[in-house]
Structures are given as C-alpha cells and as structure tokens.
Amino acid sequence: MTTPHKKLVLGTALLATTLAAVLTGCQKPAAPAAPPPAGFTPKQMADGLFVVMSSDRAVYTKQVVARLQNEAKVIKASEHFKDEKALPLPAQMFRMGAEAVAEKNPGFTYGLLSLWPINKQNTPKTDAEKTGLKFVADSGGKTNYYAEETLGGKKYFTAVYADVGVSMACVSCHNGHKDSPRTDFKLDEVMGGVVIRLPL
Amino acid sequence: MNARQKTIGVWLGWVAFLLAMTAYLTHRWRGPDRTAFLPGPTSHGHYQIELACNACHTPWMGVKEKACLDCHSAELKLANDSHPKSKFTDPRNADRLQVLAADNCLTCHKEHVPERTRAMGVMLPDDYCYRCHQETVKERPSHRNYAFNSCATAGCHNYHDNTALYEDFLVKHLNEPKTKSAPRVATRALLAFLNESERWPKKPALTVAKHDAPASVRADKETLHAWATTSHARAGVNCSDCHLVPDAQSKTKRWSDKLDHTACAACHQDEVGGFLAGKHGMRLAQGLPPMRPALARQPMKREAAHRELGCAACHGAHEFDSRRAAVESCLACHDDSHSLAYKNSPHFALWVAESKGAAPAGSGVSCATCHLPRQKSATDGVTRVLVDHNQNANLRPNEKMVRSVCLDCHGLGFTLDALADPALVRTNFTGRPARHVESLDLAARRLLETQSKQTKP
C-alpha cells in the first residue's frame, strides 16, 4: 500500500518525466539538422531564367542587329519587320519569345516593361512593377528587386531586373521613336526592366 | 375500372410516352437532321455547320474553346492578331480579365443567341475597347472627339486584324491616287509551280488519241474534246490520273466516275484546303453533305437551289475553265444586290475588255479577283501565286481585303472610304464613296507634328 507521501513523490516524478519528455522531444537523441529542401528557391529560379533571357537577348542585339544593321549595314531592323522584310527589333524578339512561352503555359511568365515605354501597354501597373522599375533604374542596374504580390487571388514571387541599353541600336531607336516619352537615353543606361513572375 | 387500375393505366401510358420520346429523340440524334436539338439559330459564320454539334461541343454539350482555334488559328496568325490569348494570360492583366475575359473567345463570340448577336458574331456592345483603352483619349488629343463605340466601326481599328490599319502603314500610303497606274493582278503560273515543287512532274501534252480511259467506261466525244483542249491534257494529266481512286476496303485503286474534292487535292491541295476552310466547303470539312444554295441565308437563284458545291460545281468536270469559274459560276447561284450589280460595274467593264483582248492580261476584275484573291505564298519551299479559295479569309469585316485585294489597284485612302460605304458596296462600287474614313488624315497630321517637333532646335 502506498502512503500519501509516496503518491506525492511518484506524481512529481511522473510530471517531471512528462515535462522533460515534452521539452526534450521524448528524450530521443537529438536528430541532425534537416537538410534544406532540394531544388531552387523562387529567387534562384528567377535569377537563372533572367541570365538565360538577358544573354540570348544581348547576343541577338550585338551579333545580329548591331552587326548587320549598324556595322555591316546589310539589313535593317524594324518594328514592322514583316512588311519591311527586316529583322525584328531586339525588344520584339524578346516579346515574341515571352508570348511563345505564355502559349506553352509553363507556370511562370515574363515581360519587358519600362517607366518610359513606347507602347503604353508596357507601363508598370502593379505596385511591385512600379516600385521595382524605379528601384532598378535608381540603382543604375546594379541591384535587382524582389517582392511577393497577389494578383487575381494568386500569390506570386516577382523579380525585376534592369534592362540596360547595351548597344546604340537600342538607344537611338528609342530616342528617335515618335511614341517614345523619353529621348535622352545614353549607352549602358537603364531603359526599362524585365519582370519575371513565379507562382508561389 | 377501379382506382387502382386507373393509376396503373396512367403510369403505363406515361412510361410508353417516355419510351416513345426517347426512341424519337435517339432517332433524330442519330439521323442527318438534328435541328430538333438546336437551342437557337446560329450566326452567319456557323449556320452551315450548325448540325455538326461535335465540331464545337463536348459530348455533354459543353463548348470547346479549342474548336474556335481549330478553324481560325491560321487566319489569326496570318493577321498578326492584335489581341492574342497569350497577351492576357500574364498575371499582370488579372485585373483586366475581371473587366473583360479577353483570354477566351467565348467572352465576345457566342452562338445560338441571335437576339444578342451583332456584326462579326460579337455579343458585346460596340464600346468594348473602352474597358482597357481609356487612356487613349488622354494620350491622343486627336481622338477626343471620337466615341468609344466608333473605334472598330468607323474603319479605323479592328480587334484582331490591323495589318492594313496601323499608323505607320497609313503613313506609308498617304496621298495615293484613287487608282494606280496600270494596275494588274499577279499571274498564277500554276503548272510551273507544280513542276518545280514536284507535285506534278513535267510531262508531254496529251491528245484525244492518247487518253487512257478503259473501254468499259464510255468516254464521249464532247468530254474527250473538253479534256484535250484544256490545261489538264496540256500538262499531261490523263483520265486515270484523276479517275483511279483508292478503294478504302481493297486498298487498291479503282475507276470512279464520281469524283469529289479529294481527287483534285492530289495536286491542288492548297486550293482544296482553302475551299474546305471557306463558305463553299466548310460543310464537307465537318463531314456534312455538300453545301447547296437552298441552304444559304443569302439570296440565291431558285434554279440553282439544289446544286451541290464541290470543285466541279464552279470549274466544270472536264473543261476546267477558270474564267468561267471566276464570274459565271458565281452568278449562276448568287442573287444578292452586290452580285446582281456586278455586270453594270466598272470592274466588269475591265473584265470584258481583258476577255476580248482589248486590255492587258491581269487588268480585268472578276468576282474571284476580289473574293478568291491571288496571294503570294510558299509551298514545299517554292514561291508561288496561290488562288485563295477560302473567301472567308478576306470577307468580313471588309477591311480584311484591303491588303490582299484592293491595294493591288487602288490607293489606301480611296479603298478605306469605298469599303466603309455600304451603299457603294451594294452597287458593286459603281460611283464614288459617300463616306470618309479619317484615319489617314489623323496619321498625316501626327506625322507633321512629329516632323516639326524634330526640326525644332
């Protein structure tokens, strides 16, 4: 038969054991720290996509448009490339790629926007676009902008990268276009931004 | 009869009625006439194929959006569609999609609702552009006085096809004359194309004596004469080249007197492709019996009511007279005011002059010149001039025919004015346009403004 004193001791021991078990994870040996989830983070994914996009675009701008139009002067690049049997402008090449990607619906989207767009439909619309484009322009293209935003009830990771005028073909076309709201761009200046969106 | 027997009688009668209705509806569904199932009349674009329910509907009568693109995607691509779906799937346009779900054809185009269907099969009010383009009036002071219901109805803009209406194109065609000097339509040179593309190798011309119809087939003198004096015999195409057709069961070739468009497609696949995509062949493309003038909603000649439309209906079976196919074949069926006015029009006078040899080749204007236009195209890597047999591709809205047809002979300003004048269209362009489309004036004004800005120090 247990005495009340013994009951108190046993109860205290049980409580202490339970508390200790809870606090120490059932007294199991400490598990090694869980490895980070495999795969890319949204930021890494967006950065990777941008590297591919911007490299392809720079190659097209320099090795096709600037070389053949501005240096060798054998063919023109034109906004109306079909009618004028000319090369698509680098920005059009980029947009056509973005539309072809959108048709395949891979989950992410991207586009080319500007605070000084020739086509007003490419003016920043969402808060992330407005803040991001201003941020990358103010930083002179040195820093990217990342944000999360909710559009149409869905959450997105949105990355904005500076779009820099890498060739005089970009600069002179924008400065001379009748619909351009800005006509004093200089070489290597930020002219707009690439916006990449990944669903979260 | 007691109450119980009465109840059983009523129930038996009801079950019999249901069975009879089920049998009747099943019979109608499986039969060629499914009109009993139509929820309402279809639009002018689809009435011919309204009984091919599966073309647009899922088995449980849902609507397949893909069905629109199955038939229209090539045309939209060619028109460099100004509002493709891919423009609207970007999440940044989610707010716009709330206002107007422009990523879905069915937002603007619905069927079986004639009370709401307007021009071009559009259901929305004419001012739909306002929903996304409100800023235009702020950015372009020149547009301030135009109402939003006039964007797409005044000859200035088109939702899908702006290839003849965009500003730089207008600027390029400012101050053009009404009619260009020495206008001509392109020469077809079909045989040269068939030879070069190896669809039909070069062969010596044939004569009546060399025809290869078997003795069991009665080839009468007139038929042989018609064949021997026209293009097929000249290109070395013999009777068996068309009349030996593959037999689906034996998988060998057998002689057939009754040929359909598939026989022609062996060499003329692009022309037949256009025919099947257009008003004349769209029923065949959906597996329905051929179109007949009796089925048309437009006025048609009574005597032609039961003529079935295949290649031979317009081209003839052996004489293959393309000039007849370009005018008389059309007028044998079409009985609307535009068609009836053709023979009093300046276009017909040019056609007659060319036919008589009094005017240069290619200077005449037939029905086909405008409605089955000659287009530069590339097939099998060989460039050619193709007669586009899909008249739907440049029919409505009529600005679609500006580049493919009108500009061959006329200036852009005159063209836009003429096409915008329905009365002039009815008289087959006999007279001068009574309407004026202002888009060229606006483009000219803006050009001057831009130039003066650029020349200012």
Walk me through what this model shows.
The complex is a heterodimer of chains A (about 200) and B (about 450). Chain A has helices at about 5-25, 40-70, 90-105, 125-140, 170-175, and strands at about 110-115, 145-150, 155-165, 190-200. Chain A is an alpha+beta fold. In chain A, strands 1-4-3-2 form a four-stranded antiparallel sheet, sandwiched between helices. In chain A, strand 2 (about 145-150) and strand 3 form a beta hairpin. In chain A, helix 2 packs antiparallel against helix 3 (about 90-105). Chain B has a domain at about 65-160. Chain B is built from 22 helices and four strands. Chain B is about 40% helix and about 5% strand. In chain B, a hairpin with a 6-residue loop joins strand 1 (about 245) and strand 2. The interface between A and B is medium-sized, with 23 and 20 residues.
Q: What spatial order of strands do you see in the largest sheet of chain B?
A: 1-2
- N-to-C terminal Cα separation of chain A, in Å? 63 Å
The helix tally of chain B amounts to 22
- By CATH, the topology of chain A is Beta-Lactamase
Summarize the helix and strand pattern of chain B as letters: HHHHHHHHHHEEHHHHHHHHEEHHHH
Could you tell me the strand content of chain B as a percent range?
under 5%
The quaternary state of the protein chains shown equals heterodimer
Helix proportion of residues of chain A, in percent?
Answer: 40-55%
Q: Poorly predicted ranges of chain A (pLDDT <50, ≥5 residues)?
A: 15-27
Number of strands of chain A: 4
